[in-house]
Amino acid sequence: MSPPRPDLTPAEFNVLKALWRRGHASVAEVRAELAGRGTEVAYTTVMTLLGRLAHKGAVVVDRSREPFVYQAAERRESVLSARLRDFVREVFDGDARAMVLHLAEAEEMSPQERQRLEARIATAEAAAEAPAAPAERARAARPARAARPGRRSERP
Predict the structure, then answer these.
(1) What is the pLDDT of residue 76?
(2) Which residues in the chain come in under a pLDDT of 70?
(3) Residue 69 and residue 61 in contact, taking contact as beta carbons nearer than 8 Å
(4) pLDDT reported for residue 136
(5) Selection from 28, 62, 22 nearest residue 44 by Cα
(6) Are 57 and 43 in contact (CB under 8 A)?
(7) CA distance 119 to 110
(8) Which DSSP letter does residue 37 get?
(9) Which DSSP state fits 38?
(10) Closest CA to 6 of 71, 56, 77, 75
(11) Contact 4, 86 (CB under 8 A)
(12) How far is CA 125 from CA 10, 88, 94, 109, in A?
């Protein structure tokens, strides 16, 4: 299943974040999670939002239990990555560097935050430039094995 598209409303996304924090939850538990973070929402509103999320494929519902239990259909990281890619494509014409530069210039960053950002960039650059892992190099260098008599050869 692919991550939910960014057509989620802010209210729906808040409910999804509550599910990521809890893992799985009933309507009442989602409502309590939202209230604990300063968002008071009626029970019926949470129920409606969960229904919409289920319809959009962002949430799965366990109807075998009473009350029904809801769980995010995708991991938080997958959804955030997809939404961020869409944002960069739409707002910055696909130029992630422009977004990072804009953030660095527009937001006040502490020296520690700036160092963390620089370290992450350096790590990402090193990973992009790194040669294949030793196991991958060994596998690529290994000659193909001939089929032994009495055995089928593997198809490519």
Answers:
(1) 96
(2) 1-6, 132-156
(3) yes
(4) 61
(5) 28
(6) no
(7) 14
(8) T
(9) T
(10) 56
(11) no
(12) 33, 19, 18, 22
Q: Cα(13)–Cα(6) distance, rounded to whole angstroms?
A: 9
d(CA 132, CA 63): 46
- Kindly give, in sequence order, each residue whose CB lies less than 8 Å from that of residue 93, ignoring residues fewer than 6 positions away: none
Distance, CA of 19 to CA of 78 (rounded, Å)? 15
Structure tokens at 125: 């650059």
**pLDDT at 14 (0 to 100):** 97
> Which pLDDT score, from 0 to 100, does residue 134 have?
61
CA–CA–CA angle 39, 44, 48 (5° rounding): 90
Start-to-end CA span in the chain (Å): 27
Which amino acid, 75?
R
Residue 109, both tokens:
């960053």
- Tell me the per-residue pLDDT of 111-142, one tens digit each, with 9 for 90 and over: 898 899 889 888 988 998 887 666 665 565 55
Inter-residue contact 22 to 7 (CB < 8 Å): no
